[in-house]
Amino acid sequence: MKKLLITLLALCAGVSVQAKTFSIEKSIQESNINKAGISISVRNVNSGKILYELNPHTPRIPASTLKAVTSTVALDTLGEDFNFTTSLYKTKDNELLLKLSGDPQFTKSDLNSLLETASEKNIVDPKAFYIDDYVMDSVIWGEGWQWDDDLNPLMPKFSSYNIDQNLLTAIVDPKTQGAPANIQLTTFYPVTFMNLVTTGKENDITFTRNNHISPDIINVSGVISSRQTQKIPVNSPKRYFLIKLEEAIIEHKIGYYGAFPQKKLPLSSLNLIEEIKRPINIALNDSLKNSSNLSAETLFKVAGGHFVKNTGAIKNSILMFNEYCKKNNLKNENIKIADGSGVSKNNLMTADFMTNFLVLQTKKENFEKYLNLYPTAGEGTLKNRMLYFKDIIFAKTGTLSDASAICGYIKTRDGNLVVFDIMIQDAKSSSSDKKATEEQIIRAIYNKY
């Protein structure tokens, strides 16, 4: 009788495992996406035990789920108390020095605040105005970024000179039927619009730029019936920043008309005029909740510079990542990081590495605070997805052409906290089909584990 009971229990356990496997397998089968193009890893947080896996060691394009890794490593290096600090100093020789931090949320208003304080302190007619921009190198786009994304407002260039998201706003207004539309910027920047837009009965306009011919000429073509606005990445963040700096100097009557040479901040003989501090959590939220590429790239590069105690550069950020893996016993031989945001198709990730990485974060004291950096259903990039999982799922999404991914944490029906990573690379299926498959798999995880 005892042997029979043991046999029955074993059979039940086998049926249970098969049922769990079948639910995910069924989601894949019904998706009509080639199974070979899907990687999945699911782990129990407490035990670290693998609950389900499919092609877990196959390197794939992680898209923006890479931000879960790069932003977390940046946080580990910089610390929770880190601030992006942009400071204005005066030397004993009546020189001004602006130290940049690369703050991805820095604005023209912040710049005005710095110069307004200088004006209030009667600092006028400085002999020189230096800029310390050594927080990051001069590489303003990521490795492997696509040339035809040059005007994509989600992929602006980034540098020490970040200001107003490095984006311009163009307004296109219709006129009388059949007449050319009117195009203007909301702020000054030396751009010429080749206006081929006519006023019609619909809105269908296109912006293009040929950087290899003239980066300061933007072609606008199509038809317009009502006012349209378009965000346009500046082709040179430094140039844009210096224009805004000159405007602020004139507005606050500082009395300086010279150039802005680079100079490293000296260690002495400086008086602080004013500084703008912005907590790291703002950039982290922007990176993980809103999937901001500008915030992610800046965080990763600045942290890399902090790690080597020098200028931020992607090579230094990769050294930082490798050291993080080494000290936490994470095997990263099949991982390649090309940028901080996941925009590059040169990035490679495995589902097994990602879930190991996510489990590691749960062992830290501030895990609950860390968890809330991710969007739950109804927030950020999950604003219109899986609303039935509000406060149950905390996940980072990713989308590139032919690739879709999602990773994160979910509290299952049985009360377990589970980590998961799903990556799909398939040229034949649409982005919406990939995301629908991800959601079916996540439902299976929630119901069965």
Task: Report what the structure shows.
This protein has 449 residues and is an alpha+beta fold. The chain has three domains: 24-80 and 282-448, 3-Layer(aba) Sandwich (Beta-lactamase), CATH 3.40.710; 83-139 and 237-278, 3-Layer(bba) Sandwich (D-tyrosyl-trna(Tyr) Deacylase, Chain: A); 147-233, no CATH class. 32% of the residues lie in helices and 24% in strands. The chain has ten helices and 15 strands. The chain has helices spanning 2-31, 66-78, 108-120, 237-251, 280-288, 293-308, 314-327, 351-361, 367-371, 431-448; strands spanning 38-44, 50-54, 83-91, 95-99, 128-132, 167-173, 182-185, 192-199, 204-209, 217-224, 228-233, 270-279, 393-400, 403-411, 417-425. The chain has a five-stranded antiparallel β-sheet, sandwiched between helices. It has a four-stranded mixed β-sheet with strand order 5-4-3-12. Strands 7-6-11 form a three-stranded antiparallel β-sheet, with no helix packed on it. A hairpin with an 8-residue loop joins strand 6 and strand 7 (182-185). Helix 5 (280-288) crosses helix 6. The longest helix has 30 residues, at 2-31. The radius of gyration is 26 Å and the shape is globular. The two termini are 31 Å apart.
Please tag this protein with its features.
3 domains, alpha+beta, single chain, four-stranded mixed sheet, Beta-lactamase, 24% strand, disordered N terminus, D-tyrosyl-trna(Tyr) Deacylase, Chain: A
